[in-house]
Amino acid sequence: MARKRSGLGRGLEALIPGRESDRAADGVLHIPIADISPNPRQPRSRFDRAELVELAASIQEHGVIQPLLVTEGEETGDYTLIAGERRLQAARLAGLETIPVIVREASPQQVLEIAIIENVQRADLNPVETAVAYKQLSDEFGLSHDEIARRVGKSRVAVSNTLRLLNVSMPVLQALVDNKITEGHARAILGLNHETAQGQALRTIMDKGYTVRQAEELVRKLNGRKAARKPKPPQLPEIKAIEDQLRAHLGTRVSLSYKKGSGGTLTIHYFSEEELDSLVEALLDR
């Protein structure tokens, strides 16, 4: 059976020549695990130990069902992993000596792209790992945000917003990696220009368990902006639902002010000229 395509464009099939299921079935080799070197461009830095143990138990029972993807190294008999790091680690835990692989030619750029796509399709990368991987594609291979978006099946706004996360201070990045704050909290903290202020905001957010909206209000206060004297009335659920839909579609902060019978305002926030261009394209459906 051919592998189902995901929502990420053509996924791995777009990057690997001859990735049709009939060719893959004929091209499976069993090689020693010791001959496989890790993917030097693997964007995922953390693997859950409990999940690996669970997968290892499944491999002991059923074997490795989906072959790894590798490319030949400089020396005969040496291979470099392209995709399947989690399966490789679990196979080692299971005590396997050989493992099924499919050998493909791949450039360094393709090796990184495939690793990103594999992890994004599984939702395995945290936001910081994703941002670092995108930065590699930009810095090492000269890809624009638009080109990265096309390669990994994301919108350009989403790629730009993810890359912006790397502008926050290291303590904020570490808190995001450790799941102590969310990506929304980190974006709010980006509104502060100095590391000291960012650190202060981070401590307050974590100590008091602030929501993203409370974090955004905190940042406004730290920037010297006065909060409104009168508290806003509770937001209608249907208005919040519209905001959430627009935020998800555009990949940026959206505020909707609604007054029954008298109209209102829709505010779309952007943080760079490139993000503005992306929003214009999205709104004009170009």
Question: Helices and strands in order, then pairings?
Answer:
Elements: H1 21-26, E1 28-32, E2 36-37, H2 49-62, E3 68-72, E4 79-83, H3 85-93, E5 98-103, H4 108-121, H5 127-141, H6 145-152, H7 156-164, H8 170-177, H9 183-189, H10 195-208, H11 212-222, H12 237-250, E6 254-259, E7 263-268, H13 273-284
Parallel strand pairs: 2-4, 3-5
Antiparallel strand pairs: 1-5, 3-4, 6-7
How many individual β-strands?
7
Strand order of the largest sheet: 1-5-3-4-2
- Overall form: elongated
Rounded to an integer in angstroms, the radius of gyration calculated over CA atoms is: 23 Å
Q: Strand content of the residues, in percent? A: 5-15%
Order of helices and strands: HEEHEEHEHHHHHHHHHEEH
Mean of the pLDDT scores?
A: 78
Task: Please work out how many helical segments DSSP would assign.
Answer: 13
Summarize the structure.
This protein has 286 residues and is α/β, with parallel strands linked by helices.
Question: Any key phrases for this structure?
Answer:
single chain; 286 residues; alpha/beta; 5-stranded mixed β-sheet; two-stranded antiparallel ribbon; 7 strands; 49% helix
Task: Describe this protein's structure.
The chain contains 13 helices and 7 strands. With 286 residues, it is of the alpha/beta class. The strands form 2 sheets. The protein has a 5-stranded mixed beta sheet with strand order 1-5-3-4-2. It has a two-stranded antiparallel ribbon with strand order 6-7. β6 and β7 form a beta hairpin. α5 crosses α7, α7 runs antiparallel to α13 and α9 packs parallel to α11. It is elongated, with a radius of gyration of 23 Å. The two termini are 36 Å apart.
